[in-house]
C-alpha cells in the first residue's frame, strides 16, 4: 500500500463535510490547475457508492473514479473498494494542530508508484488548501 498524509487546520466536522459532500468534492478534487471534477455523487454509508468524474479542463480527457464503502465511522475513518478492486483506507485524527488525514491505497499496475503517490498527495494538498481557505 502507498501512504500519504497531511494536516488540515480546521475542525473535524468541517473536514468531514468538505471531504464527503459532493458540492465540496467538485471544488477540491484535483491534482493541478489544469484538471477539475465537474461531477460527484457520494452515498457515505457502508454499502453506499461514490463516483466522481475528473477531467482535463481543455476537454482532452476524463475518467470516472467510483467504488463502494466498506467502512464509515463519521469523523474517524472511511474505507472503500474502488471498482477495479483496489482498497483505500482514510483515517482522520484530531490533533492540537487540526485534523491529520492519512490515506493508504493499493497501487494500480499501469503507472509507477511514485507517480501515483505524487498524484494522490497533490489531491490531498488541494483538499487542505480548499478547507483552510473556505
TrEMBL record:
Gene3D superfamilies tied to this protein: 3.30.530.20
Domain Activator of Hsp90 ATPase homologue 1/2-like C-terminal: start-end pairs: 10-132
Domain of life: Bacteria
Record-linked SUPFAM superfamilies: Bet v1-like (SSF55961)
InterPro entries found in the cross-reference section: ASHA1/2-like_C, START-like_dom_sf
Annotated family: Belongs to the AHA1 family.
Protein name according to UniProt: Polyketide cyclase
